[in-house]
């Protein structure tokens, strides 16, 4: 992801997460540290016409990784893009030597939880009222020892069948 991707990413962000969307400033701040040697890694998924249809972000500090965000346009869900984006984050966390990778997911987002479970994430706790202003709890999940041995995004089957 680059600075010129922020506007199309914001369009998706506001549509997918209307109650708790990130701001432009949050994306700018994240990308400011997405450089060689920085603590952030962001990527986008594009359709054949170049339209951004998904994005994901990772923070790594002192051997710990955290999935900051992951989203796929609802019109492209079920086609393996979430898996490809998550696999990219897992590989990057492993490349950066992370001992574990954490994430928060809405307790009412079963589809995302299944995606994370398929990649080895396990529930480790609840953050009460994490998603504001709706006051929705977050399920905290962890993947121990992220690896580059996981599925290559190019080899992923359509997740509707998985």
Strand content: 25-35%
Number of strands: 6
Structure classification: alpha+beta
| Relevant CATH superfamily | Gcn5-related N-acetyltransferase (GNAT)
Kindly state the mean pLDDT as a whole number?
A: 90
The number of helical runs is: 4
GO molecular function: N-acetyltransferase activity
Keywords: Acyltransferase, Cytoplasm, Transferase
InterPro entries: AcTrfase_RimI/Ard1 (IPR006464), Acyl_CoA_acyltransferase (IPR016181), GNAT_dom (IPR000182), YpeA/RimI_acetyltransf (IPR050680)
Region (Disordered): 143-162
Folded structure, characterized:
Belongs to the acetyltransferase family. RimI subfamily. The chain has a single domain, classed as Gcn5-related N-acetyltransferase (GNAT) (Aminopeptidase, 3-Layer(aba) Sandwich), CATH 3.40.630. The protein is 27% helix and 32% strand. The protein is built from four helices and six strands. It is globular and about 35 Å long.
Summarize the structure.
27% of the residues lie in helices and 32% in strands.
Topology:
Blueprint: H1 6-16, H2 24-32, E1 40-46, E2 52-61, E3 64-72, H3 81-95, E4 100-106, H4 110-118, E5 122-131, E6 136-144
Parallel strand pairs: 3-4
Antiparallel strand pairs: 1-2, 2-3, 4-6, 5-6
What tags apply to this protein structure?
globular, single chain, Aminopeptidase, alpha+beta, transferase, 32% strand, six-stranded mixed β-sheet, Acyl_CoA_acyltransferase, 162 residues, disordered C terminus, GNAT_dom, N-acetyltransferase activity
């Amino acid at each position: 992801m680059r600075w010129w991707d922020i506007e199309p990413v914001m369009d998706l962000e506001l549509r997918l997460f209307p109650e708790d969307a990130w701001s432009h400033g949050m994306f700018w701040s994240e990308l400011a540290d997405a450089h060689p040697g920085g603590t952030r890694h962001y990527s986008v998924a594009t359709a054949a016409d170049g339209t951004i249809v998904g994005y994901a972000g990772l923070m790594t500090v002192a051997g710990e990784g955290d999935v900051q965000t992951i989203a796929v346009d609802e019109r492209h869900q079920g086609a393996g893009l979430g898996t490809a984006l998550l696999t990219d984050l897992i590989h990057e966390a492993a490349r950066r030597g992370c001992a574990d990778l954490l994430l928060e997911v809405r307790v009412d987002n079963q589809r995302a939880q299944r995606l994370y479970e398929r990649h080895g994430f396990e529930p480790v706790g609840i953050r009460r009222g994490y998603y504001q202003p709706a006051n929705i709890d977050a399920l905290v999940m962890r993947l121990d020892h992220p690896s580059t041995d996981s599925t290559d995004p190019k080899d992923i089957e359509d997740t509707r069948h998985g």
